[in-house]
Design brief:
Radius of gyration of chain B: 13 Å
Mean pLDDT of chain B: 95
Distance between the termini of chain A: 41 Å
Structural class of chain B: mainly beta
Number of helices of chain B: 0
Radius of gyration of chain A: 14 Å
Largest interface: A-B, 25 and 28 residues
Shape of chain B: globular
Distance between the termini of chain B: 37 Å
Mean pLDDT of chain A: 95
Structural class of chain A: mainly beta
Low-confidence stretches of chain A: none
Helix content of chain B: under 10%
Oligomer: heterodimer
Chain lengths: 116, 115
């Protein structure tokens, strides 16, 4: 079975500072993808970043980077230079690639609040 | 390129009624997945369609059903609504899950309230 765990229900960060959102996962699939999504209060899920299990380097997308530690089964999201617009709910998700399914398993999410 | 669209955005129904939600994927995307989001259960997978075939189904009762049309548009139906069906229903589309980097892009969701 696949499982995603996000242990931080809520976090605060000062504007312009960096913040790390934790995510650990468990899967028996030898090949998988890890995703982070942002959900503002409007409800839409916005794709942020992707990391494949066989990728040698950590993924980066602008101010977002993924700290992938395969042996520890963790895929933490790092947001650099936080902005007020980063205040939202953040979800870590996983997809088993070997099964050729698009099904995503989500964590419970972390609410991030950026303070001015 | 237009994103994923969902209609309606908001819906209010009463117990026992049925409801149909619609999702139009990003042009060229052949896979559509549906998720239910509630405060208590979080995000749960409902079903996935690819080229008009249901490929995967989550752990939901038979009252929840869906289909996909030849143009990749998808609908989901919930019959005999219960209070617990009140949720945000999210649709996501992707190109092809057989690609290792395949990524799902979500629509704005349909917020269903059952009274």
């Amino acid at each position: 079975a696949q499982k995603i765990t996000q242990t931080q229900p809520g976090m605060f960060v000062q504007e312009k500072e960096a913040v790390t959102l934790d995510c650990t996962y468990d899967t028996s699939d030898p090949s998988y993808g890890l995703f982070w999504y942002k959900q503002p209060s409007s409800g839409e899920m916005i794709f942020l970043i992707y990391q494949g299990s066989y990728d040698q380097q950590n993924a980066t997308e602008g101010r977002y980077s993924l700290n992938f530690q395969k042996a520890r089964k963790s895929a933490n999201l790092v947001i650099s230079a936080s902005q007020l617009g980063d205040s939202a709910m953040y979800f870590c998700a996983m997809r088993g690639i070997s099964s050729n399914t698009g099904k995503l398993i989500f964590g419970q999410g972390t609410t991030l609040q950026v303070k001015p | 390129k237009a994103g994923v669209t969902q209609t309606p955005r908001y819906l209010i129904k009463t117990r026992g009624q049925q409801v149909t939600l619609s999702c139009s994927p990003i042009s060229g995307h052949r896979s559509v997945s549906w998720y239910q989001q509630t405060p208590g259960q979080g995000l749960q997978f409902l079903f996935e369609y690819f080229s008009e075939t249901q490929r995967n189904k989550g752990n939901f009762p038979g009252r929840f059903s869906g289909r996909q049309f030849s143009n990749s548009r998808s609908e989901m139906n919930v019959s005999t609504l219960e209070l617990g069906d009140s949720a945000l229903y999210l649709c996501a589309s992707s190109l092809d899950p057989t690609f290792s980097t395949d990524t799902q892009y979500f629509g704005p969701g349909t917020r269903l309230t059952v009274l």
